[in-house]
Amino acid sequence: MGMKAILIDPTSNMVSEVSYSGDYEEIYKLIDCDTFTCVDLGEGETLYLDDEGLFKNKTYLFQMKGAHQPFAGKGLILGTDDEGETIAPKLTPLEVSMDVEFLGLCEISL
Rounded to an integer, what distance in angstroms lies between the CA atom of residue 30 and that of residue 89? Predict the structure, then answer.
């Protein structure tokens, strides 16, 4: 049985609700990456990101209110309970979309 998650897709400038099975390996597919990292958003919410997003020649960026830096690639928001287990986020896609600014394509010369 799946749970809801929130996908931030800067390539299409969309924030949407997606289904997440609870299998951490699905995160790789949802955010199109080989290695992910986590950012604590507070209030029991966690943002999963491509850990190598800034090393790609072409990547789309987004910024979230309160964050000190932009994020590269897609992001996935899931909740975390008191035991550290993954749960559905309390945030809604609408709430997230109000806190996200899409910054467009960033081309990096490596």
Answer: 16
